Amino acid sequence: MLLKSLEIQGFKTFVDRIKLEFGPGITCIVGPNGSGKSNIVDAIAWVLGEQSARALRGSRMEDVIFAGSEKRRPVGLAEVTLVLDNTDGTLPLPYPEIAITRRLMRSGESEYKLNKIPCRLRDIQELLMDTGAGREKFSFIGQGRLEEILTAHPEERRLLLEEVAGITRSRWRKEQVLKRLAETEQDLVRLKDILRELE
Ligand code: ATP
Q1: 3-state SS, residue 150
Q2: Which of 85, 155, 179, 196 has its CA 20 to 30 A from that of 16?
Q3: Which residues of the sequence carry a binding annotation for ATP (predicted)?
């Protein structure tokens, strides 16, 4: 699953819209300290559904919206679109290219889109399960990440290994089915009570 392009607007240092095209092979991002190299990686993690402001090096999610500089006023909206190549069919959608978009307004309102169609965060999370870009994001090795993995609790490490092994999606489906089963069992109990009352 290759990254094809990334569009960023109003996210951290990138107040104006920028579009990065990733070619095949290795892409290096070079720049002076504080110029926004890590913010590009944060933008990728964010558009893929990252929910922790801390993981994005902020304290609140609103911190990802451009907060102003000496020359520019703050903006009210951050938007990132990541286009993934899906010609190998890694992602379970019948499209050769998949564009994931995330927007956040300062009011707290947020929006996700798949190929420009509004969707839920859950649709994106389900789409990315077992790809390495899902919840555990093992394909992101940030500064300090290795140490974090080595010192993680066994339970956290197991989640990571499950994502690497590609069983997250099956586990998630099993949990959903078990939840539905429990709900149905409760409905049955309630139904039996009603029937007994009617007899
Ligand atoms: P280094 O090489 O030191 O790791 P870097 O190129 O990776 O640096 P980043 O960490 O990506 O740089 O960017 C840090 C810069 O991003 C800081 O100058 C910080 O002020 C700016 N920044 C972070 N969040 C925002 C925001 N919401 N609005 C405006 N600027 C922001």
Answers
A1: helix
A2: 85
A3: 32-39
Domains of the chain: 1-120 (3.40.50.300)
**Structure confidence by residue, pLDDT tens digits, 7-43:** 999 999 999 999 999 988 889 999 999 999 999 999 9
- What is the residue type of 66? F
Helix (H) or strand (E) holding 176: helix 168-198
Contact 10, 77 (CB under 8 A): yes
What is the sign, positive or negative, of the torsion defined by CA atoms of 19, 23, 26, 32?
negative
pTM for the full predicted model? 0.81
Instruction: Tell whether residue 170 is among the known ligand binding residues.
Output: no
Q: Angle 154-165/168-198 helices, nearest 10 degrees?
A: 100
Pocket test for ligand 1, best of 6, 9, 11, 13 (most atoms within 8 A of CB): 13
Instruction: Decide if 80 contacts 25 (C-beta within 8 A).
Output: no
* Ligand 1 pocket residue status of 62, Cβ below 6 Å: no
Predicted confidence (pLDDT) per residue in 176-193, tens digit: 999 999 999 999 999 999
The token pair that represents 92 in the structure block: 């379970």
33 in a labelled binding site: yes
